[in-house]
Every structure is written in structure tokens, then in C-alpha cells.
Amino acid sequence: MSLETNFICSTASAIHAAIITHKPEIEPLDQAIGDGDHYINILRGTEVAAGMTDELASLPPDEALNKIAMRLLSTIGGAAGPLFASFFMGMAKIVKHNGANTTLDIAAAFAGGVQELIKRGKGKIGEKTMLDVLIPVAHTFVLSAIENKSTENICADIKAAADKGLASTRDLIATKGRAAGLGERAIGHLDAGAKSCQVMINETCDLILKSSN
Ligand code: ADP
Ligand code: MG
Question: Whole-model pTM above 0.85?
Fold first, then answer.
């Protein structure tokens, strides 16, 4: 696997469509334990990224990722904007440094993106946020790549890690973000950011599987 700018662009479009498809599952979550804007924030962000195809086309992948980060920073509101922007900046940094010519390079870039997001939000696992999906997915991606698994198996491992991480947020108390004030009342609800990340990761895996067949 290698990361090309045209793959980044087609992923952005596919993710935008997937967010719309999954609106009925995503939207109620931030309404239940947040301020209800997460679906709109993520919809706007993915729409903006999907609309960048023409301006990204001639750029190398690291510059394309950086440009997406800058645009997200100025267009998505809420906590999610700077967090997703940090993810893309972190990913761009690793791609610029290491290239993205192997599956392990791409896994390392994803992990670098998650690391930057962790730094920006001062978060960790177990706080009922998107990190409960992103951290296990990053670990799984790197380990499966090191083990030289097939693309099919790597995608299956990643999807399973995302599903498990999402499910784990149901019984957690939030200590970050707007749900943090709710204490035990947040128990029983999935986290909105974790759900949108699971949707985006699933969609990306499906696209990788389609393009590798
Ligand atoms: P806001 O919280 O400003 O209304 P959104 O509703 O768009 O922004 O995003 C909320 C999501 O952001 C939460 O569901 C959670 O997953 C994630 N989140 C909030 N704070 C953090 C943080 N410090 N680190 C990681 N993720 C966070
Ligand atoms: Mg919100």
C-alpha cells in the first residue's frame, strides 16, 4: 500500500457521503450528552475536504494533508475542528519525513496524526472521546502492518478495533469535552466523536479493500 493524493481525495468524498448516510446514528449522540452540533460540524468538515479535489490534485500527499488541516481549522467549529486539523497536521509531518510508500509508513503516519490530536486535546484513552476509537485503531494498524498481514486482514483488524473502541464509550463517564459535566448521566450513551470516527475509518477501509481488488 502507498498513499497517493488522488486516494486522499477519493477518501474525502467517500467519507463525506458516509457521514450523510450515517446521520441517523451520529446526530442523536451529541444531542443526548453534548450540545448537539457534532453532526453539523463533521458534515461541514467532510464537505469542505471533499470539495478540495481540484486544488489538491497536483500536490504531494504531505502538502495535500497539510492543506486539508488548515482548511478544517478555519471551517469546522467546536472542539472537533482543531482536533481533526491536528490529526492531519501530524499525519502530514510523518509523511513528509518518512514518505508513505509502504503499509507500515501509512500506519506510522496515522499513528502520528493520533499523537498530534492527543497533544492538542490533552486527552487519553478512557475519557469517552474519539480517542477511544483512534488510539486502539492506531495500535492495531501499526501492529498488523509490522506483522505483514494482508490488506484484507489489516482492514478487518482495524474495523474490529474501531467497533470495540466505539462500544467501550457507552459505559464510560466523560472527563473531556462537553459531556464532562454530566457525570454518571453520560453512561449508557455512545460518544458522538467516537461514532463519527468509526464511520470514517470503516469507509476508508472499504475504499482500500475496493481499490486493492
Ligand atoms: P464541541 O464539543 O465543541 O461541541 P463537537 O460536538 O463537534 O464539538 O465534538 C465533540 C466530540 O469531540 C466529542 O464527542 C469527543 O469525541 C471529542 N472531544 C472533545 N474533547 C476532546 C479532547 N480533548 N480530546 C479528544 N476528543 C475530544
Ligand atoms: Mg458538540
Answer: yes
